[in-house]
Specification:
Shape: globular
Helix content: under 10%
Strand order of the largest sheet: 11-12-13-14-30-24-23-18-21
Structural class: mainly beta
Length: 354
């Protein structure tokens, strides 16, 4: 780590895993006083600290203080998810006429890469001027997925308060690769109540309705005249309190939206504003979908700083290929072919509205 790197990235010891791997925290800074902490356990964002107009600091993502909590937790706070984000029906898929079976870790289905997915791995790391690059090599048939798959995740914090996440992957056999980040945002502050009074806008004319197991079956519906019409700002409370079988299935929002615009180009996915409409988070991505999850199953979690997180304490804005797209021909395929390169970008940008 050179002197230039140390100006914008600071490395410190975070903890030691149960199997005696040392884990480090990387604090990435910019020239506006913003700081993002990322650990190489799960390539996990543990804090995102910003300053308001009065100079007060707010940490806007949920997380834990200790490595032990990350090892024992099951909420994916801030983690890099893979190989495949979201759900795969019946925990199985077919590639090249071969059926692959995965772990059932949500009923009969496979969720977020399995119990021991990328969120529980120790990642290699490299620090450049303003970037932390995490690398994980997933061996052939790890968690049931074919191919030796290498994923690099680059975190950069710009002076425009953009947390840029670049994903670059390759494999030696055809496989699925559909990573995402699982930050739970609360723009009031991670320990400052629920996100129900936040305002949400989603740049999507369509969404993928789910069945009772939380998985779509290939249908794409227009959002018009539904609770999912978030093309203009609405409070989260207003949205999830409406009568809807879809909201009953998800216990709130836990749905994929089909982002408007040309695929594989960076475009706006969603806008989130805090209760007082003083702070805005804008999400940009090259991916086709964004899963909006309003923290409906947090339950009761002991979070960092002696805080207690409850249902709706945070909201996830997970950029992705559509859920179960490996099993649904109508959805864009998440297959990465041997010898090809996976690339995607997601940007979380914080703005002060005042």
């Amino acid at each position: 780590m050179g002197l230039g790197s140390m100006k914008y990235v600071k490395k410190s010891y975070f903890g030691t895993t149960k199997d005696l791997n040392r884990v480090y925290k990387f604090t990435v800074l910019n020239n506006r006083g913003t700081e993002v902490d990322i650990i190489n356990y799960g390539a996990t964002v543990t804090s995102f600290r910003i300053k308001d107009n009065l100079g007060k600091t707010h940490d806007i993502v949920l997380g834990y203080d200790s490595l032990d909590d990350y090892e024992n937790g099951d909420k994916f706070f801030g983690s890099t998810i893979g190989r495949c984000a979201n759900r795969i029906s019946n925990s199985s898929f077919r590639i090249n006429d071969k059926i692959y079976n995965l772990e059932n870790n949500e009923g009969d289905n496979h969720l977020h890469g399995g119990e021991n997915g990328f969120h529980r791995k120790i990642w290699d790391y490299k620090v450049e001027e303003r970037v932390v690059i995490f690398t994980y090599i997933s061996e052939d048939m790890e968690e049931g997925y074919p191919g030796r798959c290498t994923l690099k995740v680059e975190f950069t914090l710009t002076d425009d308060n953009e947390l840029c996440i670049n994903y670059i992957g390759k494999t030696n056999k055809d496989t699925i690769l559909n990573p995402t980040n699982h930050c739970y945002f609360n723009l009031n502050g991670h320990n400052d109540g629920s996100i129900l009074k936040h305002s949400l806008t989603v740049n999507a004319n369509s969404y993928t309705p789910i069945e009772s197991d939380g998985i779509p079956k290939g249908k794409i519906y227009k959002v018009e005249n539904t609770p999912f019409d978030l093309r203009t700002p609405k409070s989260i409370q207003e949205v999830i309190s409406r009568e809807s079988k879809q909201l009953f299935y998800g216990k709130g929002l836990d749905h994929n939206f089909c982002i408007n615009g040309k695929e594989n180009t960076l475009r706006l996915g969603a806008i989130l504003e805090d209760d007082s409409r003083e702070r805005r988070l804008m999400v940009y991505t090259t991916l086709p979908g964004i899963q909006i999850y309003t923290g409906n199953n947090i339950g009761r979690e002991n979070g960092k700083g002696n805080s207690t997180y409850l249902d709706n304490s945070g909201i996830c804005l997970e950029t992705q290929y559509y859920p179960d797209s490996i099993n649904i021909d109508e959805f864009q395929s998440p297959i990465l072919k041997a010898g090809e390169v996976y690339k995607s970008t997601t940007i979380y940008k914080i703005e002060s509205i005042l």
